Amino acid sequence: MSKRAKELRYVICVRNEGYEVSLELRKLYQALPDPSVEGRHLLRIVDESGDDYLYPEDFFAPIELPKAVEKLLAVAT
Fold this sequence. Notes:
By secondary structure, the chain is α+β, with helices and mostly antiparallel strands.
């Protein structure tokens, strides 16, 4: 598995106030690593536009996917 695939993680949107167009509730999103925002309570998320933006981390819940699903998603990105 590539280094990029190992860095990928997924979260579920649990809040979207103010970002209703960009974030869908209960949808799975890819969270990208971003050391520049550590400690600021933000996550870099690939949203509905296909681009990545910073959103409040409390808008998302982490999710652990089965390894087979992670591999499929890593290939698809």
